């Protein structure tokens, strides 16, 4: 987390905005007391990483088998 005072924030606002948009936490302080946090309006979405769940999910052998009447009934309630 980056903490800057108000004067430094005024001087480097464009740079601080860019850092916040890239995901870095930027806190602006008055003296030594933190008062606000600079955050992007829309957080950047994490990029998908194919294969990240490999070995963590199990597909049951009966996945493609027809549902039982009890399972069909459960969907209707």
Explain what this protein looks like in three dimensions.
The protein has helices at 6-11, 13-21, 69-75, and strands at residues 2-5, 26-30, 33-38. The protein has 77 residues and is α+β, with helices and mostly antiparallel strands. The chain has a domain at 1-41: YefM-like fold. The chain has a three-stranded mixed beta sheet with strand order 1-2-3. A hairpin with a 2-residue loop joins strand 2 (26-30) and strand 3. The longest helix is centred in the first third of the chain and has 9 residues, at 13-21.
Distinctive features:
three-stranded mixed β-sheet, 3 strands, alpha+beta, YefM-like fold, 3 helices, 77 residues, 19% strand
CATH class of the domain at 1-41: Alpha Beta
Distance N terminus to C terminus?
49 Å
Largest sheet: 3 strands, mixed
Major β-sheet strand ordering: 1-2-3
* CATH superfamily membership of the domain at 1-41: YefM-like domain
What assembly state would you assign to the polypeptide chains in this entry?
Answer: single chain
- Taking all residues together, what is the mean pLDDT? 92
| Low-confidence spans | none
Number of beta-strand segments: 3
Radius of gyration: 25 Å
Global geometry: elongated
Assess the beta-strand content as a share of residues. 15-25%
Named CATH architecture of the domain at 1-41: 3-Layer(aba) Sandwich
Q: What is the count of helical runs?
A: 3
Structural class by sheet pairing and helices: alpha+beta
Helical content, roughly?
25-40%
Annotated CATH topology of the domain at 1-41? YefM-like fold
Q: Order of SSEs, N→C?
A: EHHEEH
């Amino acid at each position: 987390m980056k903490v800057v005072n108000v004067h430094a924030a005024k001087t480097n606002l464009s740079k601080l905005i860019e850092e916040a948009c890239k995901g870095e936490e930027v806190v602006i302080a008055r003296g030594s007391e933190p008062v606000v946090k600079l955050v992007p309006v829309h957080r950047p979405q994490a990029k998908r990483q194919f294969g990240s769940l490999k070995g963590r999910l199990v597909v049951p052998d009966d996945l493609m088998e027809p549902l039982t009447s009890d399972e069909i009934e459960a969907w209707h309630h």
